[in-house]
């Protein structure tokens, strides 16, 4: 598992998208010369995640205005995620990482069989990575459970602060 320092380059990943395609982060970066906010969330069954995704969708225009593309990743099944996206009308990429390839590559906490408490079975926990156009980490935050994660409005403040104070 990787532990990232600020300005480390994030690993590339290719995952199935609810849109029916294989999403390549490297290819997406080439097509969108901008920053990315990679949001790992627990699953379609998680009410806290559902609310968070609604908030990201409501703020999508703000993020895009500030040249930040949102990408959501969960260890949940593609079918479950597709149902969630359709129900909540999510328009940014939502990816399924059932094999936990990106979760492991980004060192996201994982609630597995060896977890000290029961919590909806096995799944990845919330994590956030702000990545610049070069693929370098400018901000990261990882959770070991569903609560205490930054609200999308707090992430907007963080992004604004970093963009105003970025060293050239």
- Domain count: the total is 1
Sheet having the most strands: 5 strands, mixed
CATH topology: Glutaredoxin
Number of helices: 6
Cα(first) to Cα(last) distance is 30 Å
CATH homology superfamily: Glutaredoxin
Integer-rounded radius of gyration: 15 Å
Shape: globular
Strand line-up of the largest beta sheet: 5-4-3-8-9
SS elements, strand count: 9
Report on the structure:
There is one protein chain. By secondary structure, this protein is an alpha/beta fold. The chain has one domain: Glutaredoxin. Helices cover 33% and strands 22% of the residues. The chain has six helices and nine strands; from the N terminus they run E-E-H-E-H-H-E-H-E-H-E-E-E-E-H. It has helices at 25-31, 47-58, 60-65, 78-88, 101-105, 152-165, and strands spanning 14-16, 22-24, 35-40, 68-74, 94-96, 110-111, 123-124, 127-131, 137-142. The strands form three sheets. A five-stranded mixed sheet has the order 5-4-3-8-9. Strands 1-2 form a two-stranded antiparallel sheet. The protein has a two-stranded antiparallel ribbon with strand order 6-7. Strand 8 and strand 9 form a beta hairpin. It is globular, with a radius of gyration of 15 Å. It starts with 13 loop residues before the first strand and ends with a helix.
